[in-house]
Amino acid sequence: MKDYYSLLGVQKNASEEEIKKAYRKLAREYHPDRAGGNEQKFKEVTEAYQVLSNKTKRDQYDRFGRTFESGGQSGGFNGFDFQQGGSFSFEGFDASGLGDIFGDLFGTMRGTEGRHSRGRGDDVLQEVELTLEEVFHGVTKSFTFQDFVACGVCGGTGAKTERKRTCDRCKGKGEIREMKKSFFGTFAHVVMCPECEGVGSVPEEKCTVCKGAGRIKKQKSISVEVTAGVEEGQLVKVVGGGSAGEHGASSGDLYLRIHVKSHATFVRHGADLVTKINVNVAEALLGKEVRIKNIDEEDVRITVKPFHDIPQIITLNGKGLPYLNSRRRGNLIGEVYITFPGSLNKEIREFLEQHKQQL
User: Fold this and answer.
1) What average pLDDT does the segment 84-103 reach?
2) What distance in Å separates the CA atoms of residue 30 and residue 87, rounded to the nearest whole number?
3) How far is 338 from 287, CA to CA, in rounded Å?
4) Cα 37 to the chain's mean position, in Å?
5) What is the rounded CA–CA span in Å between residue 125 and residue 134?
6) Of 192, 194, 196, 193, which Cα lies nearest the Cα of 164?
7) How much is the pLDDT for 255?
8) Which band of pLDDT confidence, cut at 50, 70 and 90, is reported for residue 303?
């Protein structure tokens, strides 16, 4: 996985402004339209900026460097869509989503027809708590929250009828040209038409329920299958599970951030489960068989060996949590400690005094 911070030459705790400033400098240096530019380098720093300038993507990158889709797909940042928003591109590379910064740096860039961000819905983040048992088995979680959904009356189009007319502002092109200044001079800057949201046409009559927006805010219910073995802090991505877009545009994505509750018996370390086993002095000297109820409800026997250093670590292979998207399981680890009595009676004290050299 690429180190996006190194590509931009910034520290991991860099502010949003520092990241933007570093990208501006490198984008000017590497831009392929300039003498001595480097298209490959430009693509790399642009990809880095697209991740680190987005709070959700940056958080995911800092924590795990990966996401997995709902339904069990996993991988790197391929799960993210680096083509959200904007209308800027140059041959061989998609730079959409960077309209503001490219407008400042390079003025006009060739617009790509049909690639306008037509009010795409926002991504939504929900915090989810799971028990360790739910992590073991996998679980379907249902959520209800307030969000934008497609208008049921107009089907998300924002129109009362199917009749449309050509947008007066862009004359049907879906985009308009604005003059913008930069340190390279004044350029014609191509942007999406704000009147028709890049469609080129507008409804003759707006929907009376959504007022032409194509979406309304209401209670939304969704069920998500969380795969067994999910990790603490993992982001589960549900494509299209976020806010509905405007005027029939695509919905945003839903991200579930996983939090695993503490367990009374086990502590999790990756796919391994660690449990504490207490024995008294005699049991530590003579040995003991301990039975515990495992996370899968199986009765497990753990044999404490006599005359062993404390803490004694006992590992049962394949008795832990499942690995994500795998049939393999981690280990169950017992950590054996001695519990001492609060006091000793006279007989035991005398016995220990007599035999302490042997103990």
Assistant:
1) 41
2) 20
3) 12
4) 34
5) 20
6) 196
7) 92
8) very high
Side chain identity, residue 213: A
Task: List pLDDT tens digits, range 16-73.
Answer: 889 988 988 888 888 766 667 787 888 888 888 888 888 878 887 887 654 433 333 3
d(CA 202, CA 171): 11
Nearest to 85 by CA among 112, 110, 105: 112
Identify which of 311, 225, 337, 315 has the alpha carbon closest to the alpha carbon of residue 271.
315
Q: Which two tokens stand for residue 147?
A: 């969000």
CB atoms within 10 A of CB 84: 16
Partners of 201 in the β-ladder: 166
As a three-state string, the secondary structure of the chain is: CCCHHHHHCCCCCCCHHHHHHHHHHHHHHHCCCCCCCCHHHHHHHHHHHHHHCCHHHHHHHHHCCCEEECCCCEECHHHCCCCCCCCCEECCEECCCCHHHHHHHHCCCCCCCCCCCCCCCCCEEEEEEECHHHHHHCEEEEEEEEEEEECCCCCCCCECCCCEEECCCCCCCCEEEEEEEECCEEEEEEEECCCCCCCCEEECCECCCCCCCCEEEEEEEEEEEECCCCCCCCEEEECCCCCCCHHHCCCCCEEEEEEECCCCCEEEECCEEEEEEEECHHHHHHCEEEEEECCCCCEEEEEECCCCCCCEEEEECCCCCECCCCCCECCEEEEEEECCCCCCCHHHHHHHHHHCCCC
Angle at the Cα of 274 from the Cα atoms of 270 and 276, rounded to 5 degrees: 160
Task: Supply 164's token pair.
Answer: 């449309």
Kindly report, residue by residue over 237-293, the tens digit of the pLDDT.
999 999 999 877 889 999 999 999 999 999 999 999 999 999 998 899 899 999 999
